């Protein structure tokens, strides 16, 4: 029964067909229609926001350095990749400011990497709450992405400080303001990804291992660490890379922060199309499984 998705209206209709008074009853474990589902999410917006803020403020509470890790961890990650790929493997391939190139790529990709590799556990980790309370389950991936957005406030600050401090020193420009709309599109893309992989992770728990590999493949194939386009000779493969929204997103961040320019319209359209397309597909895909999320596995 719990794994048999049914629309709420179907259940109410069956009760009424049996001569039972369904008025005033609130169905549990069923999928409301799309409009009602969106309305329920909006009604719980304060809970979703509060949950996200609380988890960010307490996630490092057991560590001696506490919230300092929100800044220290991205700095250590960027330093590690710069040493390995910039100094040891010398993968710069003529990039003038390779330190800034790596810092921007690694730290801005972290958010999408978390959506891909950790989104599979969103529903599993929220299982106690799902079984105890009635609420739209899409609240969980939405809260996870809001939590990530709050963490990215610190990460973006680290990016800006590091590229200004590390030689040859990038200086603040008016184009840096464009990092805000680019991140908004990244947030929309991440939410769509999280909605998709959350349901996939619920249906097939083993897929979490696979998605970790997918995340690493996206990192190495999207120009996050080194200029991948300089290694591509095949025009078909190059066209696939150009259509990759993560590749376009990272390139746009570098254009506004390092080059001081405005990304071309083509990049905005590719990233926007993927972001909103993934969000629409992901939301409908997740909503279709709403009635099954309380079932035991």
Report what the structure shows.
Belongs to the ABC-2 integral membrane protein family. Keywords: Cell inner membrane, Cell membrane, Membrane, Transmembrane, Transmembrane helix, Transport. The chain is mostly helical. Helix content is 67%, strand content 0%. The chain has 13 helices and no strands. Helix 4 crosses helix 8 (139-165), helix 5 (98-118) runs antiparallel to helix 10 (207-221) and helix 5 runs antiparallel to helix 12. Residues 1-5 have low confidence and may be disordered.
In short:
This protein is an all-alpha fold and 297 residues long. 67% of the residues lie in helices and 0% in strands. It is elongated.
- Note the overall shape: elongated
- State mean pLDDT (0 to 100 scale): 85
Class derived from helix and strand content:
mainly alpha
* Model regions low in confidence, pLDDT < 50 over at least 5 residues: 1-5
Q: Summarize the main sheet.
A: none
Strand portion = under 5%
Discrete helix count: 13
Q: N-to-C SSE series?
A: HHHHHHHHHHHHH
| Rg estimate, integer Å | 22 Å
Q: What is the terminal separation in angstroms?
A: 13 Å
The number of strands is: 0
**How much helix is in the residues?**
55-70%
